[in-house]
What we know:
54% of the residues lie in helices and 15% in strands. Strand 5, helix 9 (223-230) and strand 6 form a beta-alpha-beta unit. The protein contains 13 helices and ten strands. It has three domains: 12-116, Helix Hairpins (Orthogonal Bundle); 119-241, Rossmann fold (3-Layer(aba) Sandwich), CATH 3.40.50; 252-343, Regulator of K+ conductance, C-terminal domain (Alpha-Beta Plaits, 2-Layer Sandwich), CATH 3.30.70. The radius of gyration is 33 Å and the shape is elongated. With 344 residues, it is α/β, with parallel strands linked by helices. Helix 2 (15-42) packs across helix 3 and helix 8 runs parallel beside helix 9.
Amino acid sequence: MIAQRRRRRGVGSGLGRRHLAILVGILLAIIAAGTLGYVVLEGWGPGDALYMTVITLTTVGFREVAELDGAGRAWTMLLALSAVGIIFGTVGIAAEYVVEEVTSGRREEKRMRERIAALSGHFVLCGYGRVGATVARELDHAGETVVVVDLVQESLARAQADGFMVVLGDATTDGVLREAGVERARGLITTLDTDAHNVYVILSARELNPNLVIVGRANTLDAEEKLLRAGADRIVSPYVMAGHRLAEQAVRPAVVDYLEAALSHREPTLGLESLPVSPGSGLEGRSVGELRADGVVVLAIARGDGVHTPRYEASPGDDRRFAAGESVIVSGTAAALTRLRARA
């Protein structure tokens, strides 16, 4: 999907570069023709003819190599006029190229703002470092639309090269989050390097959109509680997760490999999904057995007082029916899960 967006975005016309290449070719042709003209008309050697051609085209005003006759003077005037045309042509093309680069950048920014303004149900990703870039790729593989917010121009350039819509600015400010469409977004993920900045982002985002699903990065264990109090729904510590993953790989490598393949969205033969049972949705009232008949295995049903304290009913029986407010954790092929999502 990223590669497709790169191809759609394309590159600039390069009109100024092509004109400049043509101008250089014309200049070399005039130098060659001028040198040949002095050789033929004045009978000079190639060195003297080239020297006279160059000083004429550059209008430096040095003395002539030798006394010129009528034909030589006419040839010199023609070369001088050609030099004036080349000078003005070069200035015009350079100005055209600069204007084109500036206006194309502004047009691209305007198009980006218009595309973001038309979004709804997307994800806002704050920070495009190593963690943020990984998050963006996984969301993209899951078919989600991502808007990247970062204060560093180099990071945004990488995000835009990867095919994502971007907003340059401080994610802790309301204006920047509004520009990223946080009020219409489905979720926000903040992966900034400092816990204080992540707290500010969560506070601002929660105020702008109370229904937003917010996932925050905790760089220290002490920060997890602060991020939750600020309004985050989920907290992830990359260092704690890396420690857990290393230990599990040593003890249960096959389980870890299965989960990683199922969650990567790249393996069509299997997948894991969590689907909420909304009132009136296609899942409400259906049974575990009905999903099994469709090729979907129900691993667990999540219930709880909120997103922070879920209770899991593992391996429910085939006659167990789903109720609104629950979440169903299922496994199956990518095609079967796609059909189930469409019904849900």
